Predict the structure.
Amino acid sequence: MSEKIKLAIQKSGRLSNDSLKLIQECGINVNNGKGKLTSIAGNFPMEFLFLRDDDIPGYVADGVADLGIVGKNVLLEKGKNIDVVKNLGFSKCRLSLAIPKEKEYTGIKYFDRVSIATSYPKILQEFLDKNNLTADIHEISGSVEIAPNIGLADAICDLVSSGSTLFTNGLKEVEVLMHSEAVLVGSPNMNAAKKEILERLLFRINAVQTGEK
Ligand code: PRT
Ligand code: ZN
């Protein structure tokens, strides 16, 4: 049987449509019918795995998938030793600290000895350490913006794109920890045949991106 490269993409969420669109623009047929967890491209040596985005870095690190499309934010948070093969330029956002809008922001020392709610404890802890700050991190998996209003935390660290969620919840963005976008990640342990398929894929992605400029 000829070699296929396995690409993990988000099953449903903010990355899904643009990931599928990119693959289709590369001329690769992908069938992601409802409920499907895997599928095979008819016209390119590629197999798809449809997963939760949080699981993608681990699957690529373990070699279950050869490639994945995931937000840089999730990649850094999971801390897996895999390569960013290409920045994809969609799903742009930033990971930021935000505080209640009526508070006066005095600079980064504001965050010393406060409590911060986040779904990104690792990236936040690294930021605090780098700035010699001690804070109490509350890890929560969703609806982080509600935390200050219900008295769970003094501040939040979450993804922001338009800023309207912060605004609606009476918060203001005061520090940016990182800028993020979707990235193509790859296992460092691909065999020669898979590397050759990756080169063909990258050639097509580059052509798509050049065409969009
Ligand atoms: O189910 P699964 O685990 O696969 O998906 P998920 O719910 O964990 O992730 P999903 O689909 O919400 O987001 C996937 C990726 O999209 C993220 O990891 C980011 O890389 C990227 N992305 C880009 C965003 C946003 N923009 C974004 N705005 N992810 C989340 N948000 C949320 C943010 O958390 C906040 O609640 O949108 C809200 C803020 O948006 P604005 O426009 O009001 O500022
Ligand atoms: Zn997720």
